[in-house]
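anyone seen this seq b4? input:
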Amino acid sequence: MHEKSDLAQPGISKARRLFGRAPRTRSVVAATGLLVICIAPFAAARTGSPLREGLRNGTTTAETQIISNIGSTTAPTGGYSTRQSNLSSSGGGAVYGCRSQAGGSAATPRPQNPCVRANNLSTGYAFEFNASDGLIAGLISVGRGGDTTKPFITNATGVATGLNADRVDGKHAEDIAKDAVAASQALKPFAQVAANGNSGETRGVVANGVTNPGGAGDGVYAVAFSGDLAKCALSATITGTTPGEITTTPAAVAAGNTVVTIRTFNSAGTAADRAFHLSVNC
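predicted toks r here
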């Protein structure tokens, strides 16, 4: 006849039912209890509280430091104190957020800690970003963008290898090229003048600045350039197939303009109206 089970005997206590079982069962229960007692305080002592996977952990009031001494390696893994990876094709390896306030000055533009800081205490790289197969490595977004925001600040003045800047001082590359050409041209005024005093193509000549002064005699012309040409060189040439002579005399600046007097002559040195080109190099 089989004995009744412990559950069928209400007079037997829970402790007796537990420890009255086989020795192996009592050993497993005791070992499990020992692990819980030993491990839980150890985890709490190292992290403040156990790290909970898939949940939001508590807010800490002190730094959580992870210090290691691991040599560099060329293997796919290893060589870093921590490693975070997301196997999902939608990305998301790590995210860091903070509430660092703005402030400081041009001399100290970083008044508070940034959200992420990589500080290499030796001579190697402080950071590295790599997009293995993408066409764009990443994005730096600042507020609403525009010319009043800056992507970053640096004290390095050397040329960045491989960097192709499309804008400098708020201007596109083509605008800079146009400005450079215009600035170069502004340093080279000129005037094409016919024998009767009519002007052809000009640069740097004020409106109605080419004249053939009446009563001044044959071969006398005046060309008014904008600006001071005191530090510039003048060059004039008789045009046409008939030989002749020409002289130039710049006058002092008046009302912000420099008036150049030109006198033309025939090959015998007699004053005569002749067409000419006048150029200025500054």
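The two ends are 126 Å apart (CA to CA). DSSP finds three helices and ten strands in the chain. kinda curious what u guys think
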